Amino acid sequence: MAEQRQFICVTCPVGCTIDATVEDRELLEIQGQACKRGVAFVREELTAPRRTLTTTVRVRGGVLPLVPVRSAGALPKELISSIVRDLREIVLDAPVAEHQVVVRDVHGTGIDIITSRAMPSESA
Fold first, then answer.
1. 78-116: pLDDT as tens digits
2. If DSSP states are collapsed to H, E and C, what string results for 21-74?
3. Phi/psi at 93 (nearest 5 deg)?
4. What share of the chain is helix, strand, coil (3-state, %, to 5)?
5. 102: part of which helix (H) or strand (E)?
6. Are 83 and 55 in contact (CB under 8 A)?
7. For residue 95, is the peptide bond before it cis, meaning its omega torsion is within 30 degrees of 0?
């Protein structure tokens, strides 16, 4: 049975509200997208949603106790919670470089977790 679902597209900064008719994870009809990327976004949301992860990791000996990190690409949405749980256990030693790899190929996704900024050591 077909159902109406609403999505907010995050492909670009416009953030279109998209109304879709969906049946069994299949897109039947779509309205509200400003560009054709909205169609691809909704199809991906229905079959294999992905998100870019941003969080922090602890730093030992840094001018601040945490450094921001992010995924170098979009990760499968269902893995985000377990990846964040694993990142809680990581402690980097200062100094930390910007774009330093924190975890390579996180959870076998082919995506690295990298730092978003440098973190000098407190003695610098």
1. 999 999 999 999 999 999 999 999 999 999 999 999 999
2. EEECCEEEEEECCCCCHHHHHHHHHHHCCEECCEEEEEEECECCCEEEEEECCC
3. -100, 130
4. 20, 40, 40
5. strand 101-103
6. no
7. yes
What is d(CA 102, CA 83) in angstroms, rounded to the nearest whole number?
Answer: 12
- Residues 107, 79 contacting (CB under 8 angstroms): yes
- To the nearest 10°, report the CA torsion of 75, 67, 98, 10: 40
pTM: 0.84
Name the band, by pLDDT with cuts 50, 70 and 90, for residue 124: low
26-77 residue pLDDT tens: 899 999 999 889 999 999 999 999 999 999 999 999 999 999 999 999 999 9
Structure tokens that stand for 78 in this block: 């269902």
Structure tokens at 28: 């039947």
Q: Which residues pair with 51 in a beta bridge?
A: 75
